[in-house]
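Q: Could you fold this chain for me?
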Amino acid sequence: MPPTTPDTDGLANQAAAEDEAARALFEMVKDQMPGGTFRQVAFQVHDGTNISLFEVKVTCEVTRAAHSDDRPLEP
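A: Sure. Below is the predicted structure, expressed as structure tokens.
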């Protein structure tokens, strides 16, 4: 089971919780970027029980150009 962090901010409503979750997610991504190996970071927000209210995630996708190949890049 993933680690959980209880809400201690007492957010007023779900919209406020979604906004705070998005801010927290971007902070997590910033912390992981120096290594540059993540492709997806996500977490679920619960209502204090095991019922999930929503999930917030960010995905990094690399799309190669049609003309690219696997040869080494020149310095």
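A (continued): The mean pLDDT is 75.
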